Input
Amino acid sequence: MDQKKPEQTSGSSSGGASIVSADTIDGQAAGLVERESRWNYALVGSGLGVWDHNLRLGTRFYSDTWKAMRGMAPDEEADGDYDAWIALIHPDDREFVGKAIDRQNAGDQNYQIFEYRERHKNGHWIWIECRGACVEWDADGVPLRLVGTDTDITARKEAEERLAHMSRRLDLALDISGIGVFESDLDAGTVEWDARLLTIYGIKDTVRAAIADVWTEALHPDDRDRVNATVAENIARQTGFHHEFRIIRGDGAERVIRAKAAFFIDGNGHRKLIGANWDVTEEVMLNAELQRAKDLAEARNIELEAAKESIEHLALHDFLTGLPNRRYLDRKLEEYSAKSRNADQSLAVLHIDLDRFKQINDTLGHRAGDAMLKHAATVLTENVRPGDFVARIGGDEFVVLCTVEITPKKIANLAERIVRELGRPIRFEHHDCRFGASVGIATDSGPMLDGKQLLLNADIALYRAKSGGRNRHEFFSKDARRQVIASKRLADDILIGLERNEFVPFYQPQFDARTLDITGVETLARWQHREHGLLTPDRFLAIAEDINVVATIDGVILEQALIDRAKWESEGIVIPKIAVNVSSRRLDDPNLGKKLRALKIVPGTIAFELLESISLDDCDDAAIANLRQFRRLGIDIEIDDFGTGHASIVSLLRLSPKTLKIDRELIRMLPTSAEQRKLVRSIIDIGRSLSIMVTAEGVETMEHARILRDLGCDVLQGYALARPMPAMQIPAFVRAASWRQVAPATQGHHPISGKPAKASASK
Output
């Protein structure tokens, strides 16, 4: 609302939409301040102009939005003079506004919302919707404080007037033409005729449900079968119809009717016909009315064309940032490409992806993410040349098109400037938000320039920029394309390999450090490639992670390992435990427990190896739930590559693994490095203090085995004792017990301890 009758000293606030001044807070609780702050932000975004008249304190407040809708500057004083304000009200509305204010002050709910016209500072009239109410009274019921909002509804009023004007024109045209309109609900069996159609047929006081019967009876007997057949045929085909027929009115007059109808299905799924009938007995009258109808249609087409242009603009621009979208980019890319080909100019495409944007979105919420995207759009538009084109193509990705006298150095400078500006911290709701950008650049010129290929090349360069450490730019090269093509081919081969069951387990036995008895095997994934032979994980794991199939490979290997173990047992070979790798993504699978229960794993026969690089201190709820499931299913937990990741002692206590596996890099130098031996002993002591067994990987020599036994290690694994082998070789390996073979001088005794050696691990 604008002003109120009682005249007190006026005042205004410099804060945008704050409706609570420092004087009126008076020590209110911090929670109330926070809630009011949220309302203030909501009001700013809603476009509501807030006013607050405190008659007790003699103050008046008008928000910046309230002033802006009247053409006032934010710092311009609104003196609150009632007479001056009432003079700005449209003469036709003044009496009503005065009454409305009085009733609003009196608490009349019928006047809490009312509309009126007020003169804008620029001289034109604007429509205001005032919402207000008295919120404080004195002991005698006299208003002390009035609070409300004003909304500029000029656009809505103009739209309503246009709609009403169009409706009046259409109704007038139908009246002039004598056309009657009907609507038939074929599923409900009801028909509605307007008054004009009833008049054409000479029908009065007809019950709605009986109109269809009346129409059928009015048809000329010679036309009835033909017309009914035409209608039935078009309904069956779900199409409209256009035909002429004769009727005999109730007064006996015979008239010729032209009918046209359209078929449609409404929002409730009902089949409907809507159409028009008109009396064409007088052909001259019909021609005149058709011309008028044509003129009306043309006028309407002009309005529709204007609406189409508005819709097209919205379809080509991103709603959040206001930048052109992917559709607009495709159009401009072809335009810029043609321009560059014809003028022999270079075209550069910069594909920009925001780094660490997801973390901001996930931690601070989507409002923070939206603010970052808007900031990025501003940075890009401010750092490109006037003739360059900037678009947001989705998510946190942007594209810049540059032409005319561009050189690699200039483009590199532009990319560096973009990376630098986007790397600056942004303040959002008391948080310093930091994100960066990776930029892929592709340039080309000449008559063979292909804009779509250039965009693809920029995308390849962006991939290299992100792979190379992010927050940097990278130019496209043919070598990069070859690498991407090779990666794509490998990714396709991996998917085909999964379909063809080409991923198989290999097994590396593990041995008791003191007796050299087999204590278990570690399961290792191998890819039996149809062309390249047997491939180890270093050839395919990175791509498998990119296409998110590592968890699938883990599952395949586990299932095959269970099958192999059962087969070994049937041959009399007992392998106490099989260790299988579990990727971080598989650990986060909320359905993992259900899948494992379906495998009916015998408790104590399977151990899951978790890489130490999986942050054990930051496991999410799904991972923690799965770790609990492992224990309930009797599946042991082992920490792989211990000593190279970031597991803390606290996380070990919380996780309570059965085994720690010392990484091979810590084992390699044991024979020559006292420092390495001290470090490994410390890890073994940690395991022993926590009742955790310790396995050493990378046992390459019997000297390694001896040192590790003396240091107290529990289990050994490495080439000195056994190499990874396929499942079919395990029984023969176990029976042969070749790892126990020693020099003749120590024949029959353990090569490390000197004790008599066991013959084999078979039953």
Observations:
- Residues 2-19, 742-763 have pLDDT under 50 and may be disordered.
